[in-house]
Amino acid sequence: MSRLADADPECRQQRDTGVPVETVIIPNMRDIGDFSVRRVLPAPERRAVGPFVFFDHMGPTTFAPGNGLDIRPHPHIGLSTLTYLYEGSILHRDSLGYKQQITPGAVNWMTAGRGIVHSERSGERVREQGQTLMGLQVWVALPKALEQCAAQFMHYSVSSLPELEADGARIRVVAGECFGVHARLETHSPLFYADISIAPSGRVKIAADYTERAIYLMAGTIEVDGATFTERRMVVLKPSAEIIVHSATGASFVVLGGEPLDGPRHLWWNFVASDRELIEQAKSDWRDGKFGHVPGDHDFIPLPES
Q: Which residue range or ranges hold the Pirin N-terminal domain (predicted)?
């Protein structure tokens, strides 16, 4: 049993009762300047869930008037990022020339491929007024055959995301195919991502359509086969186990997963690759200014020393 599992009674409970749960991950807190995140993946007990290799719960952080989010331009390779907010807004700019504000319920989907640079900041009006910011950002490792593809950016509005309701649950399908619905967001590998809210005494069935699946609980509590799980936990499900999620109090969570990666991935800073040489090349390219620039945002984050 892992160190985190030893520390969490939920982990002991699910292992002792035979619940169809593989493990429970407790996020680690990380401070990024004036902004806090809960780092869920990668974790000691689980490096990835399907092709999802990175999972951050951002905030909630309240910025006073005159202050805001300032993540300076930085590079990525070998991945797609999915940004989904619950509160506040973020202004995305990238080296392809896109400038897009994302607000709660909408989706930014950026594919880095062989290389992209982007920044994430508070817009001018939002900065003047101040805001509370909370959301999720996840990284999806690209299949080996597409690691060197051209970079792309897509934005999906709230109205473009399919929704369904049943048994006290509201399900918004963000990416991939699940719950009998296919999202507009086209992915590069078999995966799914859905945002779910359950009313008190509601329920939802999570089918075993994909080999690897997980639940991340944003708020409230849920019950799975008699075991209770609390907010800010990732519950990794066992393969082939169809489960029913109940909630006596009501809850908000995401479900995500997909098929296993086509081989291990190396993660270093903002780079993901199947070959360490690709990461070394990306380090050199960023150090030498070969990644390109974000129009209108001339600052940048230097390469880490280690």
A: 35-140
Tokens of 266: 């190396």
Q: How far is CA 202 from CA 78, 100, 171, 220, 221, in A?
A: 39, 36, 12, 12, 12
The count of other CB atoms within 10 Å of the CB of residue 240 is 8
Q: What does the pLDDT profile of the chain (306 residues) look like in tens digits?
A: 222 333 344 443 344 446 799 999 999 998 876 788 999 999 998 999 999 999 999 999 999 999 999 999 999 999 999 999 999 999 999 999 999 999 999 999 999 999 999 999 999 999 999 999 999 999 999 999 999 999 999 999 999 999 999 999 999 999 999 999 999 998 999 999 999 999 999 999 999 999 999 999 999 999 999 899 999 999 999 998 899 999 999 999 999 999 999 999 999 999 999 999 999 999 999 999 999 999 999 899 999 986
C-beta of residue 295 within 8 angstroms of C-beta of residue 93 = yes
Domains for the chain: give ranges and CATH numbers: 3-287 (2.60.120.10)
Overall pTM > 0.85 = yes
Name the DSSP class of 122. -
